[in-house]
């Protein structure tokens, strides 16, 4: 049960955005991809989804090359929450979340799936809205929601698809402090139920709550492993050019940049 990048290089505009990356993402674990601006985080995430052609290497899902899978299978198994995910403005939140069931309700994106049941869908949609604390928003149109509220609806839509992996690009954008913490807690709950979670995160103190970190620098993996292995002063200096002290507070790692 793994999503794996073998020796992956992605070249954009003649420059390697991601270079010879080897990394394994297990299900049942929250992984965070961190690194400075332009390090290749979003590019790696999109490559893992099969959205960006590889210059070299391959991506496999349970040892099957991603490029051999139909698009419908990929999108059912791997959900993507992009930065500022576009949502239809005039549609109510519940119907937007229902769109997340699309891959289950249609076969190859073309034919109605005879196994799909409306009652099951309704319960799954309801659960996704509850988990993301978006139930009170369910009957409101997207155009009336704040940035953080939209983000929660977008997350509920991704969850409604019951993917094996959830890949999120800076999901805490727009979220207030309480929801950022809630999001991480919630992603851990999903991982405990067997989902693989991969999130691009900028906030290192939030990333410290992940199970597994991948620190990218100039397209390369500078360090990977547990937060305690990756979040070291030497690694942060090398990646961000910043001196930082790492301490523990209530058992959690705390990264404080020095002036
Ligand atoms: N469409 C594109 N065409 C050309 N170069 C690109 C393109 N998209 C990204 N790049 C370049 O690839 C590199 C990696 O970009 P990427 O968006 O993956 O970085 P990132 O780590 O996600 O950055 P950020 O933290 O700023 O979002 C950067 O140098 C960027 O300028």
UniProtKB/TrEMBL annotation:
GO terms for molecular function: ATP binding; ATP hydrolysis activity. The keyword Nucleotide-binding applies. Residues 3-243 form the ABC transporter domain. Gene3D superfamilies: P-loop containing nucleotide triphosphate hydrolases. InterPro entries: AAA+_ATPase, ABC_transporter-like_ATP-bd, ABC_transporter-like_CS, P-loop_NTPase. It comes from the Bacteria. Keywords: ATP-binding, Hydrolase, Nucleotide-binding, Translocase, Transport. Its EC number is 3.6.3.34. PANTHER family: HEMIN IMPORT ATP-BINDING PROTEIN HMUV. This is Iron-chelate-transporting ATPase. It comes from Deinococcus maricopensis (strain DSM 21211 / LMG 22137 / NRRL B-23946 / LB-34).
